[in-house]
Amino acid sequence: MVQDIQNGQNREGGCYTLLDTIAQPVHIGEKPVFRGNLDTLKQKAKNHFFSKRLAQSLTKLPESPLNKAYRRTLFDCGALLVQEGQKLTSRYCNGRWCNTCNRIRTAKLTEGYKKPLGEFKDPYFVTLTIPNVEGEVLKDEVKNMLRNFQLITRSIRRKVEFNGIRKLECTYNDNLKNYHPHFHVIVDGKENSETLVREWLNRNPKAESWCQDIRSANSGSLSELFKYTTKIVSKSKNDGFKIYVKALDVIFQSLYGLRTFQPFGKVKMVSEDIDELKAETYDIPYYESVVWIWHENDWFSMLHGDALTGYEPSEKMIELTTEKMQL
After folding, report:
1. Among 43, 23, 41, 25, which Cα is nearest to 33's?
2. Rounded Cα gap, residues 184 and 48, in angstroms
3. 196 contacts 207 by C-beta, under 8 angstroms
4. Average pLDDT of 273-290?
């Protein structure tokens, strides 16, 4: 294996979220604020391992228009870590299917929106839904949802101050074999939240009132809002945890190029994109300069072949990313 690494070879031959998507803060500069330890780096390796396995399965869908993007995740994202001192710098793919990039994105959005949302006087967490749809019409339905939401916010803002942020999310229902696009919204004010739901039902006559939800926002609402765009790991009633690769590809195609997070009112937008090049500082052994290359389940030194984190996937992780990952 070390010989392969030194030769530069790196080619990995209802719903429930199993992997966490809490991102590690990333700051670029001569003195990065973020400092992680070895356990943090090992968690990053775990997420990287999962992302590579998922991307590998997604690349087996050659007809997908996202195939090139999936291959970038597989072969380029975090493939090399350049260490200078205790700072590790790498390139990232920015893909929504990449758990590594999602962790960074989550931290960026949480930090960026924490202050303005924290200033809300009476925040509410609102869920807006439509009936489940077939994959063939998912993209059109999503665009229609976005258009309706924009019209609703414009209408409400003509009458009252209306501030908040909405998030687009979509999940796959394995039992019904269809898709559930929906919005999560944090809104300032109970009356505004009720108006939002009422206007949503007016513009979506097929939507059921009992499927919409309004509840007082709490300390976990911000985390809930930013943790994922789609649930990668599904839990079926009979088969336990599964990953439905083709269904995920349908979702990623439908969301591709769309803004999943959109503030409104006085809340300023924070970009969802993450920079291609990122630097992080860890409390790890000091090297003046060394390059680490990803191989199977860890980064290995191109200088001496040692593993960086010592991460080894568990039996459950191996099962999840092999037999439980279905095309």
Report:
1. 25
2. 27
3. no
4. 87
